[in-house]
Amino acid sequence: MRMYDIIEKKRDNYELTKDEINFFIREYCADRIPDYQVSALLMAIFLNKLTKNELLYLTDAMSKSAKILDLSDIKTPGKYIVDKHSTGGVGDKVTLIVLPIVAALGVDVFKMSGRGLGFTGGTADKLEAIKGYNINLSLEQACHQVQTIGECLISQSSEVAIADKKLYALRDTTATVESIDLIASSIMSKKLALGADKILIDVTVGSGAFMKNLDDARKLAHTLVDIGNMAGRETKAIVTNMDQPLGRNVGNALEIKEVISFLLSDETTLKSEYLKDLKNVVFEIAAYMVKMAGCGDDIDENKLRIENAIVSRKAYDKFIELVKAQGGHICEVYMDWIGMNLDMPVLKDSVKYMKEIHAQKDGYIVSIDSKKVGEALVCLGGGRNKKDDEIDYAVGFEFAKKVGEKVHEGDTILKVLYNDKEKFDLKWKECTRKYFDIWRKIKLKYPIGSKFKGNFVRYHPNGAIFKNGVAYAKKIDDVNYNIGDSILGEVCDYDEPNMWLILD
Question: Which domains does the chain have, with CATH numbers?
Fold first, then answer.
């Protein structure tokens, strides 16, 4: 058998046999087929696509290119181990919330997650924002942990599906990454190798996801399900929206904080609009995982049990148990809003600077470009352009307002947390040059010591805000103002980050 013949056959759009695909994977992993021939085959697959049989053969061969886990000895009798996978997105912290929830409801979870590259974040990076958390357990250690506490969450292991790693590197350099068939076989090869009985896949779609339109997302979902079911693993897929960041926070440590806050929610908070988008995805995925594991057949009833697991703190306790088991540092913190002491993960990094972005007029948030948010996080140092890039775990974004929410002029809509002031100031000026030009003109018009006359707009944590048509100003005092009240003050300083005059 020759690789040349396999390339030629697929080029001419004939179906490859199981033996041909096994030969290709086996010989390539043994370094007996050069990259240029594999690149040619990948392009032929990209152009002509794979049949259902070819998809199964390729995925099976890739999954067997290294260790295949047998989890039969560690699962609870009468129940199934369910693996959950997400195609990723900006602000996607669902795994970190779902895993302790379903573990609290009796589901054994063996989860392997990747690191982020490009504008989408990685679950492994978010966990490594916790000081001491060991994401690199061996497969043996991970299995033992599942036996002990019913949950583990580790990084993708080099011990499984080595063919996928080799092929992905070539796909990234041969313009074949977007192939749905190759994406599906890549995902499912790792899922099959990990040995879970059943697989649930969250296929994200939108500006913050890899799949940009619904048709492609549905096609990928169907392809993934077909592969899993043909391989004898019950597989389901859920398509979720990633047109805006999921939740209110983007950034590794910030998302860990949001996970903690979510798992500490009470009944009222869970029903609030503030958590709506994140809650909907979490509850849907968790409910189906519980069902697939054999721990509850009714989806609606499962959602009620999920809510109870959160409100009772059982899910939070499982999260802390996971962190402790994998070496994460814990401190005891008194939570005023709960009125009790709680174990809390210790985060690695802190931020030095914060920038608030304010609404320029009344209205509603119409859209948020998730991809640009993800790219901005990379610029802040919170993500990677290359695999060996170091991450600043603390930086990121806090969204005070999301799509559909009303804003008033002057409202904070976004907070940017950063550490590299020089780099941030440069990027900020590039993005907001026109506003800096306006601010420069305002300072020329109102030098320190000059008079300012304006009308009260709103209160701010640091004072009251006044506007006179061309400038914002704030005055720090204890006087109560009503909307429209006028004031005459003297400019005593400048609030450069927020572009406000400070009045005396």
Answer: 3-48 (1.20.970.10), 82-340 (3.40.1030.10), 353-419 (3.90.1170.30), 434-503 (2.40.50.140)
- For the chain, state the CA radius of gyration: 26
- 370 pLDDT exceeds 80? yes
Structural tokens at position 336:
């005023």
346 within 8 A of 130, measured Cβ to Cβ: yes
Six token digits for residue 227:
């592969």
pLDDT digits (tens, 9 = 90+) for 198-213: 999 999 998 888 788 8
Q: Which residues contact 302 (CB under 8 A, 6 or more apart)?
A: 105, 286, 287, 290, 291, 296
- Taking a C-beta distance cutoff of 8 angstroms, is the pair 412, 454 a contact? no
Q: Give the closest residue to 332 by CA, choosing from 321, 347, 353, 346.
A: 346
CB 490 within 8 A of CB 504: yes
Question: pLDDT tens digits for 435-461?
Answer: 778 888 888 989 999 998 888 877 766
Q: Which residues are catalytic?
A: 85, 164, 171, 186, 190
Upper half-sphere CA count for residue 477 (Cβ side, 13 Å): 12
Query: Residue 50 — pLDDT band, cuts 50, 70, 90?
Result: very high
pTM confidence score: 0.81
Render the burial of 278-290: b for 16+ CB within 10 Å, e for the rest: bbebbbbbbbbbb
Q: Tell how far CA 362 is from the center of its chain.
A: 30
β-bridge pairing 109-113 and 330-335: unpaired
Tokens of 398: 């806090």
What tokens appear for 399 in the block? 């969204």
User: Which stretch, 229-233, 301-305, 490-494, has highest mean pLDDT?
Assistant: 301-305
